[in-house]
Amino acid sequence: MYKNHPIRLLATSLVFLFTATTTSQAQTTPEELGELLYNDTNLSEPAGQGCVTCHDSGFGFVDPDNVLTGTPVSAGVVPGRFGQRNSPSAGYAALTPEFTLKSGIMGGQFWDGRVPNLTEQAKGPFLNPV
C-alpha cells in the first residue's frame, strides 16, 4: 500500500546514496549529498521532477516556466496538474530566520512562512500530491 509513498521513496534513495557513497573510496560530503538530492528526478511520484525542476540556478533558483512563459503557478510532475503557487527562489532559504511574530511577521519558509525552518520546508515538496 505504501510502496510508492514519497517518504518511503526518499528514505530508499537516502539509504541507496549513503550505501553507494560509504562503500566507495571517497565519502560524499553533506553538500554533495544535498546536490544529489536536489537534482534527483526519481524522488517524485511519478518520477521525472526534482527540486531543480522548479528551482533552477540558471533562473535565480526560481521556476523557469514562471520566467519564460509567465505562468502564474508551477506545474506538477503529472501533465496538466499545477501547484497552488509559484516556486519561490531557493537562494534565500538558508538565510531566512525562523518564523516569529515578536516584532511583526518575520521569517519562515515558503511564500507565506507556513513552516518555521529548512527542516520543515524540505518535507513539503515530498508530501505535495501535485
Count of DSSP E strands?
0
N/C terminus separation:
19 Å
Strand content: under 5%
What does the main sheet amount to? none
Explain briefly what this protein structure is.
The chain has helices at residues 6-22, 30-39, 51-54, 64-68, 118-127. With 130 residues, it is mainly α.
Could you explain how this protein is built, in words?
It contains 5 helices and no strands. With 130 residues, it is mostly helical.
Topology:
Layout: H1 6-22, H2 30-39, H3 51-54, H4 64-68, H5 118-127
Features:
130 residues; mainly alpha
